[in-house]
């Protein structure tokens, strides 16, 4: 099953709310464990040095309680892929674009 959404939706990593755009959800199979796992991918924007610091510091944790209320998703996940535009945060109005992919892990 694959779900795509072009509207902005909230995604929570623990208590950190990210406003996700280009949201994609799918179930992926793990051939060795014969199980399926949730995989989500989305983009979001960070504005200013302080928000950049807060978000990236939280992402260093790498394992999160992931919630996407609009799609009734809730799972323990870790970073599968992560990329950003080149951060040029000279002012608090400057932005950074982020792409994040999270995959379900077993607890």
Structural features, described:
The protein is mostly beta strands and 107 residues long. The protein is built from 1 helix and 7 strands. It has a 6-stranded antiparallel barrel. The radius of gyration is 14 Å and the shape is globular.
In short:
The protein has 107 residues and is mostly beta strands.
Key features of this structure:
11% helix, 107 residues, 6-stranded antiparallel beta barrel, globular, mainly beta
Topology (SSEs and partners):
Blueprint: E1 2-5, E2 9-13, E3 16-30, E4 35-47, H1 48-59, E5 63-68, E6 73-84, E7 95-104
Antiparallel strand pairs: 1-3, 2-3, 2-5, 3-4, 4-7, 5-6, 6-7
Termini gap: 23 Å
- Which structural class fits the helix and strand makeup? mainly beta
Q: How would you write the strand order of the largest sheet?
A: 2-3-4-7-6-5
Order of helices and strands: EEEEHEEE
> Oligomeric status of the shown chains?
single chain
Instruction: State the major sheet.
Output: 6 strands, antiparallel, barrel
Rg, please? Answer: 14 Å
Uncertain segments of ≥5 residues (pLDDT<50)?
none
Query: Mean of residue pLDDT?
Result: 90
The total of helices stands at 1
